Amino acid sequence: MAELIQANWVLLVIAVIIGLIVAWWIFVANRKTSVELESKEDGAQTAKRNQALIDAPPAVARHATVQPKPAATPEVAPVAATPAPAPAPTPAPAPAPAPAAAKADDLTRIKGLGPKLNSQLAEMGITSFAQIAAWDDAEIDRVDAQMGRFQGRIRRDDWVTQARLLAAGDLVAYESQFGRN
C-alpha cells in the first residue's frame, strides 16, 4: 500500500484538490438564495401587512350586554263545564320490518371491501353476501352513489360475483376466480 501511495502521490493530491473544488461548488457557490440580515435603523417603519386588522374595529364588543326579554304571560283558557270523553286511541299499525339477513357475514372477505367500506355498508343495512349477490344495476348505482371516495369499486372489483360465490359457499370457484382470501 505504501509503495502504491509513493508511486501515485501526485495523482492523489490532484484528486483531493478536485474533490474540494467540487464540494465547494456544490455547497457554497451554487446557492440560489443567500441569507442576509437586513438591519433596521431606529425609527424605521414596521411591517404594514397586518395593520388593517389592527386598526379595524372588533367584530363583537368585548363586554356585550344582552337585555333579557320579559317572559310572556300565559293566557288562561276558559274551562268547559263537562269535558267530552276522549275517544280511545287506536294504535297505528307497526311498519313491516325490513327483511333482515339471517346472519351478518364478514363482508371483508370480498376483495376490495375493507373495514371502512364494511362499516359504510352496515350503516346502509347491508350485512350479508346474499344482499350484495341480489343487486341489479340500479341497486349498484344507488349504493355506489353513497360510497364517497370509494365510488366505482363495486363494479371494478366485481363484488356481486364474489358475493354470489361466497353466499353459495363455493370457495373453490371463488379462489380460482379471485384468489385466496
TrEMBL record:
Residues crossing the lipid bilayer are 6-27
Biased composition regions of type Low complexity, renumbered to the chain: 68-83
In residue numbers, the region (Disordered) covers 63-103
Which keywords fit this entry according to its UniProt record?
Membrane, Transmembrane, Transmembrane helix
> Biased-composition ranges for Pro residues?
84-98
Q: What is the recorded name of this protein? A: Uncharacterized protein
Q: Which domain of life is it from?
A: Bacteria
